[in-house]
Amino acid sequence: MYIGKDVINLLDREEFERIARENAQRLYAHAAVMLRSASDAEDAAEEAVYQLFKRTKPFESEEHCRAWLIRVTVNASLKILRRRKRYSENGSELEKITEQFEYPEQSELFTAVSELNEKYKTVILLYYYENMSAEEISKLLKISVTAVTTRLDRARKQLKEKLERSGIYE
Amino acid sequence: MNDFKENFGKTMGRLSAGRDVVASAKIRAEAERPQRKISARRILCTAAAVCGVLVCGVTVAGSAGLIDFDAVFGNRISVNDSELADSLVGTVKNFKYKVSDKDYKIDIKGVTGDDKRVVVIAEILRTDGTPVIDCFANPVSPDERQLVTLSQVTKVSSLDSFGYGIDYRIGEEGNIKLSAELYNVGGLDGKKMTFKGENFYPAVEYNKYERQNETDGVVQTEYVKYRDPVEVPDNGGAAIDLNDILALDMKWEFSFTYRQSDKSKQVKSLNAPEESFPLNLKVHTVGTKDEFVRKLTAQPSYMEAGSTGGRVDYVYKNTGYVGNLTYVTDVSECNEIYIIMKDGERVEASIGSGCETPEENIITCSYDLFYWDEDSFTSVFINADDIAAISINGTVYELN
Question: B66-70, B293-297, B368-372 — which one is most confidently predicted on average?
Fold first, then answer.
């Protein structure tokens, strides 16, 4: 067999699968906001996990792995967005997402965030959902901390207006 | 925004994918994962000398049944060559290629698709019949050939409203198989698109980096780096210069024009079978956290089997619940479904299911039927002529 022992150690597939299982829901939810399409979100989440399984380089920590998975999911989502940039949105695909919510307010909230510009919803997701700091986001997105805070500020303002209009927050 | 954070977290926590993305990703990765160590030094290719330019025209045309590939490419599964002969619906034109070694050639194997999606399959070979991949990594056995994955730079002409995808993999014989997919929500009849690919690289980690314009977020530049995943350098993985690892200097391109076949899908069907089967149904009541499982009896209403597998529709009456409910069927635990071939072989069907929104207390659901071949890692599609019956929970439904 050609595979060296050291290579096996770098490829702990069971560990990768455990991490994938633990993060799959988050990755899908992340992509769902980005893409507003259930099947596209599944594709993006699958792509991230697929890249994980293909990866042959070890991670420094689980946090490193999680951040890497998010980055790959963001990239996969952006790639899908670029590919379908001129497509009209498929309402039934969005419905498949919103029908999972327990309360109408959750659907309103999801819709408000997902309607934001790509760069704004990305920082909202990372900051409020992934609990990442502005500095961590700047490293992940390869943009400056100032750019992150500026985007966050603008995103919050837009969100506030949307949610006030829908009556969720007053 | 504290409320927002909490509510947003709860909202996001409600979402879950309809399919097991980890399982499907694993299958893809298992099919492609390089398990052998590939040294960058071993795969240095001889520099491209004088490029022989070979230009040839290949026209593939024909007609056959329409095939719905939504499920197939949604799972990123390649089609089999055997399917292509029966599903030619387009015309490939202007096919040409240029390689650093005149002993290579590309064959267009076929075109297939439906009214919104078309796929062109091509294969890269050596004219003397020796495996292409031997030039890349000098594998010592046929098994090792399959472990070499490839990357390639591909460009597709930009047209409005089109989506596309390029897939490439090593076949068992050691040649490169390409599939180029084009998708258009508005239909493809009469549309034309050109694919251009260049430079195949053997398996090393592939990263694409993006630089964004701070003003509007538009991607300004993209570039690729290659890293040897096994021999991680001391600096943590500095990029290897692309030119250092070129394995096959090749450019290929073709355009195709799609024309829609007017023939319909070959289908066998059975209407209104008498037997019914049990069905587990998870019922969620909207607005509460209630979730409970009901065992109901489903009545098959229609079955069909065609070149993409088949489908079973079934209905059941919603008795005992009124109001705004959502349902999730879980067919995997309570039903065994087999496709029974004419030669007696029983093929276990993979199942995708979905239900339509309740209407007048009657819910219509369906199974999708196809089967997964573990050896080839592909979905296998079935000629309807070869199917004798479908079995659900031991009850055999003959098809006519």
Answer: B293-297
Instruction: Report the predicted TM-score, pTM, of the whole model to 2 decimal places.
Output: 0.39
ipTM: 0.84
- B354: which residues sit within 8 A by CB, 6+ positions away? B329, B365, B366
CA distance B208 to B76: 20
SS3 category, B192: strand
Which amino acid, one-letter code, is at B247? Answer: A
DSSP B302: E
Beta-ladder partners of A55 = none
Q: Which residue has the tokens 């030039």?
A: B135
**Under an 8 A CB cutoff, do A25 and B185 touch?**
no
- CA A57, CA B185: separation in Å to the nearest integer? 39
Residue-level pLDDT at A28:
93
What φ, ψ does residue B277 adopt, rounded to 5°? -140, 155
- Beta carbons of B144 and A54 less than 8 Å apart: no
Name residues 105-144 of chain B within 8 A of A (Cβ): 144
Select from A56, A83, A144 the Cβ nearest to the Cβ of B163: A83
Q: Please give the structure tokens belonging to residue B333.
A: 């635990």
* B388 vs B400: CA distance, rounded Å: 8
Q: From residue B214, how far is each of A35, A75, A124, A142, B251 by CA, in Å?
A: 21, 17, 17, 11, 34
CA distances from B122 to B80, B95, B152, B172 (A): 12, 10, 14, 15
Chain B contact probe: residue of A46, A70, A85, A90 with most B CBs at under 10 A: A46
- Rounded Cα distance, A45 and A125, in Å: 15
